[in-house]
Design goal:
single chain; alpha/beta; Rossmann fold; 6-stranded parallel β-sheet; 14 strands; binds uridine-5'-diphosphate-glucuronic acid
C-alpha cells in the first residue's frame, strides 16, 4: 500500500521506517528540513536501537522516501498517518493540539481523492470528533475524507520492536471501510498473531491515555511505599518483588526510585486531568494529581538525602551524577528526573560532573552549568558523593573497588535501586537508596 507519515519525530520516524519494512511504499513528511535530510540519508536524528538499520535498508530499496511538501504527500497517497507532537501547553496542564490541527488544516484542501487520515499522536478523548468537523469544513467540494484514531504504545529504546510486535493494535474508526484499510496495513502483524482491538475513536483515544495513567499510577504507588519503607525500616525492593509474584499485580513498572519522566507519562496524566475537568468528571480522576505530586516528590527526596549524606550542604562539594536521560537506552532528556536533580544540586553550589552514555549533547543543551564527562571514571574523580540517577546497564558493571580509589569519599546514593548495595558496601562504600534500609 501507499501511505504517508506526517511528522517524523520520535513516533513518526519509527512508524515510517517500520511501515516500509512491512512492505508498504512510505513517504515521510516534516517541516524540519534538517530532520528530513538526515532521515533521507538513512540517519536516525535521535538514539534508538535498530532504527538506523531499518532506515538504511528501506531508503536504499526506495520503499521509504522523505519530503517537506504536504502537496507531495496529498498527491502520493490516500492514507495519511498523523504523528506530530502534542506537548503540554505552556500556560496550563492541557495538551497543545496546534500541530495536529495544523496538519489537518494544511492537508484537507490539498486532497483530490477520497482519503483516510489516521491519527497516532496521543490526544485528549474527543479529539477525533472535533478534528473530523475541522477536516470536513476544509475539503474541496466532492472530496470525502474520514479520520480514524490508532494510538501508539511504543517505548523509547524499544520503539522498533514495540511497533513491529506490539502487545495490541487499537483502531478507533467510524466506518467499516476505515477499519478494513487499517487491517490491510497491519496484515503481516495480524497474521503473526498480534491482537486487534477495533472500536470507536473515543475509546481508542482513551485507551492510550488510560494505559499511560495506569503505568504512572503503578510507579507512584511503589514510590509512595518507598517513603513508608524509609519511615519504618522496611525494604521496598523486597516488597515489590513479593507484590510482583501476584500475577494480578505483576513486577513490571514497580521499580521504586526517582520516578517517571520523559515526553509522555508526565504530560499525559496532566492533559488527562485537564480534559476530565472539561468533561466535568475531574473528581473521578483527581487521584492523578496525587500521582504527579508523589512523582515530583521523589526528586526532592533524592536531593534532600544527597544533602544529608554530604553533612547538610552542597556548597563546595563535588558530586558525580551518573545518568542524565529520563531512562536508559534513550538520549531523551525531556522532563528527565536525573537532570532535574542535577539542576537543583548545581543551584545549591555543588561542583557537579555528569556522565551519560548517550544523552550528553542533549543534557548540555538543556542544562548548562555542570561539567559533562564522556568517561564515567573521570566523572567520579575526587567526588564526595556519587549519585546514580539513570539505571544504564553499564553502571551495573562498574567496579566499586576501583571507583573507591578514584573518589574523595566512597559515598553512593542509588536513586534507581539498580546497583547491588552488598557489593558496593563490601568494597568500602557508604550506600543509601530510596526505600531501603541504610
Ligand atoms: C511510555 C509508555 O511506557 C509507552 O507505552 C508509551 O507509548 C509512551 O510512554 C508514549 O506515550 O509515547 P516511555 O516514555 O518511552 O514510554 O518510557 P517508559 O519505559 O514507560 O518509562 C517512563 C518513565 O518511568 C521513565 O522515566 C522510567 O525511568 C520510569 N519508570 C519506569 C520507573 O520509575 N519505574 C518503573 O518501574 C518503570
Amino acid at each position: 500500500m501507499r501511505l504517508t507519515v506526517i511528522g517524523t519525530g520520535y513516533l513518526g520516524a519509527v512508524h515510517a521506517a517500520c511501515m516500509a519494512d512491512l512492505g508498504h511504499d512510505v513517504l515521510g513528511v516534516d517541516t524540519d528540513t534538517r530532520k528530513i535530510e538526515a532521515l533521507a540519508a538513512g540517519r536516525a536524528p535521535f538514539y534508538e536501537p535498530g532504527l538506523a538499520e531499518l532506515l538504511t535498508r528501506n531508503t536504499r530499496s526506495g520503499r521509504l522516501r522523505f519530503t517537506t511538501s504536504l502537496q507531495e504527500a496529498a498527491d502520493f497517497a490516500d492514507l495519511h498517518f498523523v504523528c506530530v507532537g502534542t506537548p503540554q501547553r505552556p500556560d496550563s496542564l492541557a495538551a497543545d493540539l496546534s500541530h495536529v490541527e495544523a496538519v489537518v488544516d494544511g492537508l484537507a484542501p490539498l486532497l483530490t481523492r477520497d482519503s483516510l487520515v489516521v491519527g497516532k499522536s496521543t490526544v485528549p478523548v474527543g479529539t477525533t470528533r472535533s478534528l473530523s468537523r475541522r477536516l470536513a469544513a476544509r475539503l474541496r467540494p466532492g472530496v470525502t475524507a474520514e479520520i480514524a484514531w490508532n494510538p501508539e504504545f511504543l517505548r523509547e529504546g524499544y520503539a522498533v520492536q514495540d511497533t513491529l510486535r506490539p502487545d495490541r493494535l487499537v483502531v478507533g474508526a467510524t466506518s467499516a471501510h476505515a477499519d478494513g484499510l487499517l487491517r490491510t496495513v497491519y496484515e503481516p502483524m495480524l497474521r503473526s498473531g498480534v491482537a486487534y482491538v477495533g472500536t470507536d475513536p473515543a475509546t481508542a483515544e482513551l485507551v492510550k491515555v488510560a494505559a499511560n495513567s495506569f503505568l504512572a499510577t503503578k510507579i507512584s504507588f511503589i514510590n509512595a511505599m518507598a517513603e513508608v519503607c524509609d519511615a519504618s525500616g522496611a525494604d521496598v525492593v523486597t516488597l515489590a518483588d513479593a507484590l510482583g509474584h501476584d500475577v494480578r499485580i505483576g513486577r513490571r513498572f514497580l521499580s521504586a526510585g526517582l520516578g517517571f519522566g520523559g515526553g509522555c507519562l508526565p504530560k499525559d496524566i496532566r492533559a488527562f486531568l485537564a480534559r476530565a475537568e472539561e468533561l466535568e468528571v475531574g473528581e473521578a480522576v483527581s487521584f492523578l494529581r496525587q500521582i504527579d505530586r508523589i512523582n515530583e516528590r521523589q526528586r526532592r527526596r533524592t536531593v534532600d538525602l544527597a544533602r544529608h549524606l554530604l553533612g547538610g550542604t552542597f556548597a563546595g562539594r563535588r558530586v558525580a551524577v551518573l545518568g542524565a536521560t529520563f531512562k536508559p537506552d534513550s538520549d531523551d532528556v525531556r522532563d528527565s528526573p536525573a537532570l532535574a536533580v542535577a539542576a537543583q544540586i548545581v543551584a545549591a553550589d555543588a561542583d557537579v560532573r555528569v556522565h551519560d552514555p548517550e544523552g550528553l549533547d542533549n543534557a548540555r543543551a538543556a542544562l548548562p552549568g555542570p561539567a559533562y564527562c564522556p568517561d564515567v571514571v573521570e566523572a567520579c574523580r575526587d567526588a564526595d558523593l556519587v549519585l546514580h540517577l539513570t539505571e544504564w546497564r553499564q553502571y551495573r558493571a562498574l567496579d566499586p573497588a576501583h571507583l573507591s580509589e578514584v573518589v574523595r569519599a566512597p559515598r553512593l546514593l542509588d536513586a534507581r535501586n539498580a546497583l547491588d548495595p552488598a557489593a558496593w558496601r563490601a568494597a568500602g562504600w557508604q550506600v543509601r537508596a530510596l526505600g531501603r534500609p541504610a
